[in-house]
Design brief:
The complex is a heterodimer. In chain A, 41% of the residues lie in helices and 18% in strands. Chain A is of the alpha/beta class. Chain A is elongated. The chains are: A alpha/beta, B mainly beta.
Chain lengths: 347, 185
């Protein structure tokens, strides 16, 4: 068992804390490591109500971080948040350099394969850190995926009563062009229930027609998984909900974190290239169009959404097969644990 | 100081007290407006190549290396000696010169790169004249489609040359790629 020091900074929202919480839990529960999760805003993690085992300690940190005497020999920096100077000094003073990794943001593009586990020798100290790139492509560090997740999902879905019409979940950024989406949903031939967080775009109401909007209160991670599993289509955003929607095995539309120079469009293209590799060309085109109208306000989007709804049966079959195939790749925590073990044997 | 995203091929930076020349720098957006730069680096002291990755805002001390015009004097075993116009001598190991060591000729004009007054690289003239000491004659009626053949040069190097080149001809070769560039003028 290794003592892992995991450093996380909350940039905004819940993604940073959520991803780190999941990773810590998996490293502890499935690989037997003791984790100290240093997070600058512990209250955000608390809000997520992640069930953490006793082998995970959560502590606050800031720039004046003081290295405790029982500091571990594995340092994980999450999302290039910056390893504290005091930790660098501590590592430099050790007879054997601790394992030092930087777990980057999720990258959907293929270039992440060539960057995964590449060393980074610190210009001043000479300490060597390795960069870890989570991703979808074989050769990346994979994704957060707990052992038995897909089996749990299928068992849960088997218990659900049949619902009439369609169930959709919506989690998006506030600038999302929702009006044409709601218009298309209301005009659909089947009744649609749209599930949304209570505090997301509270002014949004359903246009007249076949659409009903239901609001839900903040959900712990496990319950959000259940929500995704129970829906026929999930519109998700950012990183954590996006990854979970992939494992849900249901059709999904992703709104990537908005970036300068429209870089998020490249992220979506990278995802779609992988996601639609074994999908019929017409369905792949529909998905590409839906992603386009979802990040570019002002387009004639309602016909695209209508087309997407009509293709849901084909997209559903694909989504489940894709999740099964994706799960053949090693997961993020498993790859990190293997890497740490290799380093232990090597030194 | 330079940040990683401003580094270009040819820049020289210090990493852990080692001067490294950037051979290639690839910039990628990793997420949330963050980015990384993957670099192929060459250690000017050890001669080793390495691949490294950095956050795009990582800071590096960049250095400008001194260069001086020198002439090749002589070699003793694996040590090659050059001299500048002020008669200062600069010794360079053969592995620094690589294959181009064979191309050196007495008094050849070269350029030495210095780091902390130590010679770490030698640049030969871009084009070097060599004499073909042996090559097969071009076969009449050869229909194999081959347009080049192997030629041995007076330096001992063997390179591909066009089929029309004959023994005794003087040709120009590129001192870095060691490729035929044309007949000597």
């Amino acid at each position: 068992m290794k003592q892992i020091e995991l450093f996380c900074k909350v940039v905004d929202n819940y993604g940073d804390a959520g991803v780190c919480g999941r990773l810590a839990r998996q490293l502890a529960a499935e690989h037997g490591h003791a984790i100290r999760l240093w997070i600058d805003k512990p209250e955000v993690l608390a809000e997520l109500r992640i069930a953490l085992p006793a082998s995970i300690k959560v502590e606050g940190w800031n720039e004046s971080f003081a290295v405790p005497p029982d500091f571990g020999d594995v340092v994980l920096e999450a999302f290039s948040c910056g390893t504290p100077e005091s930790v660098m000094t501590h590592m430099k003073a050790q007879p054997k350099q601790p394992v030092w990794l930087n777990v980057e943001y999720l990258s959907t593009e293929e270039w992440a394969v060539g960057c995964n586990m590449v060393p980074s020798t610190h210009p001043r100290t000479g300490l060597v850190q390795h960069f870890v790139f989570p991703g979808f492509w074989p050769g990346t560090a994979g994704l957060n995926r707990e052992a038995g997740l897909l089996e749990q999902r299928d068992a849960y879905i088997a218990t659900l009563p049949r619902h009439t019409g369609l169930r959709l979940s919506l989690f998006c950024y506030k600038w999302a062009p929702t009006e044409p989406l709601l218009k298309a949903l209301a005009a659909h031939s089947q009744p649609i229930t749209l599930l949304m967080p209570h505090n997301l775009l509270p002014e949004l109401t359903a246009p007249a027609g076949n659409l009903k909007i239901e609001r839900f209160q903040f959900l712990p991670q496990a319950e959000y998984d259940h929500l995704l599993w129970s829906c026929d289509l999930n519109l998700v955003r950012g990183e954590d909900s996006f990854v979970r929607a992939n494992w849900a095995g249901k059709p999904l539309i992703w709104q990537a974190y908005p970036e300068e120079q429209n870089q998020h469009a490249a992220k979506i293209a990278g995802f779609l290239k992988r996601y639609t590799a074994n999908l019929a060309a017409a369905n792949a085109e529909t998905l590409a169009l839906a992603h386009e109208v979802w990040i570019l306000p002002g387009l004639d989007a309602a016909p695209v959404w209508a087309r997407l709804l009509n293709e849901l049966p084909a997209l559903s079959a694909h989504a489940k097969a894709y999740a099964t195939e994706l799960a053949q790749q090693p997961d993020l925590a498993g790859q990190l644990a293997s890497w740490i073990e290799q380093q232990r044997i090597r030194t | 100081m330079k940040i990683a995203q401003d580094l270009r091929s040819g820049n020289v930076i210090m990493i852990n007290d080692q001067p490294m020349v950037v051979r290639k720098a690839e910039y990628s957006k990793s997420g949330r407006n963050a980015s990384v730069v993957k670099m192929r680096l060459h250690n000017l002291l050890s001669g080793t190549a390495t691949e490294q990755i950095y956050k795009s805002d990582e800071k590096f001390e960049d250095i400008t290396l001194d260069k001086k015009a020198v002439n090749y004097s002589y070699n003793t075993g694996d040590l090659y000696t050059f001299m500048d116009p002020e008669f200062n001598q600069y010794d360079v190991q053969k592995d620094v010169l690589g294959d181009s060591a064979a191309l050196l000729a007495d008094n050849m004009e070269c350029e030495v790169t210095l780091y902390n007054e130590k010679a770490i690289a030698i640049e030969l003239p871009k084009r070097i004249v060599q004499e073909v000491v042996y090559t097969e004659p071009a076969a009449r009626g050869d229909t194999s489609g081959k347009v080049t053949k192997v030629a041995k040069l007076n330096s001992g190097i063997e390179i591909d040359v066009p089929a029309f080149i004959e023994i005794g001809e003087k040709i120009e070769i590129d001192s870095v790629s060691l490729e035929y560039t044309g007949r000597a003028k």
